[in-house]
Amino acid sequence: MSVPTELGYTAEHEWVSVEDGVATVGVTAFAAESLGDIVYVEAPQAGTEVTSGQPCGEIESTKSVSDLYSPVTGEVVEVNEVLESAPETINSDPYGLGWLFRVRVSGEPSGLLSAQEYTKLTEGED
Questions:
Q1: Which of 18, 52, 54, 87 is 20 to 30 A away from residue 75, measured at CA?
Q2: CA 110, CA 113: separation in Å to the nearest integer?
Q3: Per residue in 41-60, pLDDT tens?
Q4: In the CATH hierarchy, which fold is given to the domain comprising 29-107?
Q5: For the Lipoyl-binding domain, which residue ranges apply (predicted)?
Q6: pTM for this structure?
Q7: Which residues does 95 contact at the CB level (< 8 Å), separation at least 6?
């Protein structure tokens, strides 16, 4: 399973990419595979304040319901509307079309794992 090197990761299996003060957040391929077929996503709504490391939504699969954690602090500015009608997009393209939400960050994200650190973390969870 490839882990894109340009992204930051959390131990809760979210990825983040920050460009011009806006962070795009999603769940990793490892998480998508572990969850199984994703059937519903409850992401934070635009205008909501999220806090790094805190739960901000849920992902429901045929196996379980899991909390979503924000890897950054700031205001949600966009939610991926594709996921309302096609949540399985996360399974097929977790690092592309399956992104969850975007946040205008207040400060630089801290405590993120590198791709190498995240890969090491997930190797112990197989």
A1: 87
A2: 9
A3: 999 999 999 999 999 999 99
A4: OB fold (Dihydrolipoamide Acetyltransferase, E2P) (2.40.50)
A5: 22-104
A6: 0.94
A7: 4, 7, 15, 26, 28, 29
